[in-house]
Amino acid sequence: MSLKRIIKKCLSISLFAALLYFLVGVVTTLWYRAMNPLKRLTQDSKKLYLTFDDGMNPVYTPMLLDLLKKTDVKASFFILASTAKSNPKLLQRMIEEGHQVGLHSFKHNNQILQFPHQLKLDFEKSMRIFDERKIEIKYFRPPWGHVRPLGLCLCKAYGLRIVLWNVIVQDWEGRTTAKILCDKLRKKVRGNSVICLHDGRGKNKAPLKTIEALSIMIPKWKEEGYAFETVDNLYKKNIK
Ligand SMILES: [Zn+2]
Questions:
Q1: What SS3 state is found at 168?
Q2: Distance (Å) from CA 186 to ligand 1 centroid
Q3: Which of 13, 100, 196, 208 fits as disulfide partner to 230, beta carbons 3.0 to 4.6 Å?
Q4: Reduced to 3 states, what is the DSSP secondary structure of residue 98?
Q5: Which residues have CB less than 5 Å away from ligand 1 (the ion)?
Q6: What's the gap in Å between 165 CA and the centre of ligand 1?
Q7: DSSP bridge partners of 101
């Protein structure tokens, strides 16, 4: 066989292996989402669970914490471990004010596209940051809700439960407004909603619109008799 043919064959095998690796991640994600226990929660509850991804952000996260404090609401933050390193005081504030802190990967990498050694390192680096600060992390939300088998194994090894969501309103979109978000939240939120919102990343200062929408919706939900809890309360009581 000529060298050219050998190289061509090697390339096709590598391409096939990469495609297969990618597909395993896609299939695992679809399966995991279909099994999401939050989809099976009944709506006959007056509890809501606000969850925030992609922080901490040095500008938006303090503004959000101020709003939650003012309205006496406890929430769950799935933070990027890299931001815990650069904003230790903000993390401390979050914990002191009674919020649940979970992990959202080190720097928002997509598990489906990560090689095994990268994924392993992602968890190792992230968990070390929390360990050093003696912060117990029990919950993990994968970026984009994407998982692969190794990610599931690593969660198990680190004692992390994966938390997805049952309400999402695309609050990261650049063209969204507080009004659009309020309309979507009014339409979608029911008892036992685990609402996925964002206090970091997003386009056109998107977290500002999230905060504005919440400043309108939280008092309304309270008027309707809803109470807010962290995901820890939900998982301890309702999900095996
Ligand atoms: Zn995210």
A1: strand
A2: 23
A3: 100
A4: coil
A5: 53-54, 143
A6: 12
A7: 77
Distance 172 CA to ligand 1 centre (A): 9
Cβ contacts of 1 within 8 Å, gap of 6 or more: 9
Evaluate if pTM is beyond 0.85: yes
Which domains does the chain carry? Answer: 33-238 (3.20.20.370)
- Cα dihedral 11→15→18→19 (10° resolution): -170
- Report pLDDT digits (tens) over 111-147: 999 999 999 999 999 999 999 999 999 999 999 999 9
Closest CA to 140 of 212, 53, 220, 238: 53
Indicate the DSSP class of residue 48: E
- First-to-last C-alpha distance (Å) of the chain: 57
Residues 6+ apart with CB under 8 A from 81: 103, 105, 106, 125, 126, 127, 129, 130
CB 126 within 8 A of CB 154: no
CA atoms of 92 and 77, how far apart (whole Å)? 13
Q: Is the pLDDT assigned to residue 1 strictly greater than 80?
A: no
Q: How far is the CA of 16 from the centre of ligand 1 (A)?
A: 29
Q: State the distance from the centre of ligand 1 to the C-alpha of 6, rounded, in angstroms.
A: 42
Backbone angles phi, psi at 77, to 5 degrees: -115, 120
